[in-house]
Amino acid sequence: MATRIKIFDTTLRDGEQTPGVNLNIHEKLEIAKQLEKLGVDVIEAGFAIASPGDFEAVKAVAQNIKNSTVASLCRAVEKDIDRAWEAVQFAARPRIHTFLATSDIHMKYKLKMTEEEVFARAVEMVKYAKKYCEDIEFSAEDASRTRVEFLYRVIEGVINAGATVVNIPDTVGYSTPEEFGSLIKGIKNNVSNIDKVDVSVHCHNDLGLAVANSLAAMVNGATQLECTINGLGERAGNASMEEIIMGINTRKDYYNTFEHKIDTVQIYRTSKLVSSLTGINVQPNKAIVGANAFAHESGIHQHGVLSEKSTYEIMTPESIGLTQNRMVLGKLSGRHAFEERLKELGYSLGSDEVQKAFEQFKSLADKKKEVTDRDIEALVKEKVSEIPEVFELESFQISSGNKVIANSVISLKRNGNIITEAATGDGPVDAAFNAMDRLIGFSMELEEYSLKAVTEGKDALGEVTVKVLKNDKFFIGRGVSTDIVEASIKAYLNAINRVISELGDSIIVG
After folding, report:
1. CB 436 within 8 A of CB 419
2. CA–CA separation, 209 and 179 (whole Å)
């Protein structure tokens, strides 16, 4: 029989620890629903005690997800475990995930605890968590640099205390596939009660070996693999889910004794959603989901693919959900055709959401000869990431040229009232941002600005992403339009509303 591999997704926890990423509760819930559709076994929704916002997000995910286990990370401390349970208790399948470092370097410099103290704490906290729910995961942080005899002892102890999953993290991405596979094999052969639990691994990518280490662990007995969409996470990130899954699928000749329940045709859409909501673009040459993953420029490669795709494509674009247009949508298309296309693209929207998206589609279709799948995805993603709009764009006017100072006049609507300001700047976008700064009554630091074409051609839909800093927190704003200045204004305004949504209306001083 094939070994069933469970996929533990930590995009909403470790993935959100990517510098510059700050997801709100609505975005976390949207990603969680897509992960459920993707078929992940466990969704680690956050670190409940980290902040009130993280607690509410974990709670919301727990209340809405029915087909995946929902976990919250917590330190091996009673108050952390209490808070984690408060959040995940609403889940159909709740899990408490607690951790404690076991390596000499962590025990000496971070924990300032002895081996005996660490062992006692680990066992005690697993017992404490067990009073809340059946499913308890224990992680031996920095396991790959832990003295193996002590690691075996801790694992055996927490299993006796009630752990149902033991996680062996390569916390700093230090291990190699041969080493890490051998570590898992040693655990399987030397821990007397290891057959009572799932053995999990969580590999970081500091040396670019996270996926290879995860697969090596699987071959040597791991039954749960922890990963993130697009490989997001601390420092160089985590093992990439899409690379693990397509590695297993594509090399069935080698991994023929393993199976999973991931719906691979949802991979591309999940990757795009996470990229959009986190503001972290996927590099073009990224395996599986990068823009160039199925692109061929060399004449020799093009000739080979045209003759037989398998000459240079070891998997099909369709296997991860990349599709070609089957129906041309334009300004004469009706709502029914549009709604059917949304379903084909994997979107399940309510009637009001479909209507709003359709109205945006019709507006775009007046400007473009043909609206593509990627145009539609961009419009829907913009609606998905909506937050309460304290300020709404009423109108804008830009004057710019190579021998004149750029100036802008921006009108925003707030509480039904229209307010207008003008400003100059170093170019039309800068002038528009300066005018909005005057209108909102508080300042933000613009840390990053990026513009990319969603589709090809002169009438391409432009997608602008901005990252702003306010009160030592980063906020992402997004906007799409065929007019790049309008897209920029919408992105900046989206960031403004996010700041107000999280920090409160009180920050407005004007």
Report:
1. no
2. 12
Strand arrangement, sheet containing 445-453: 445-453, 462-470, 473-481
CA–CA distance, 381 with 32 (Å, rounded to integer): 15
109-149: pLDDT as tens digits: 999 999 999 999 999 999 999 999 999 999 999 999 999 99
Cα→Cα distances 154→105, 123, 143, 163, 186, Å: 16, 8, 11, 11, 14
Residue 253 CA, chain-centre distance (Å), reads 30
Six token digits for residue 177 = 């596939």
Structure tokens given for 329: 């949508």
The dihedral through the CA atoms of 24, 25, 28, 34 has a sign that is negative
Residue pLDDT, tens place only, 425-473: 999 999 999 999 999 989 899 999 999 887 667 667 888 999 999 988 8
* Sequence-distant (≥ 6) Cβ neighbours of residue 280 within 8 angstroms: 18, 20, 21, 230, 232, 274
Beta-strand runs (E) in 332-490: 392-401, 404-414, 417-425, 445-453, 462-470, 473-481
Q: What percent of the chain has pLDDT over 90?
A: 72
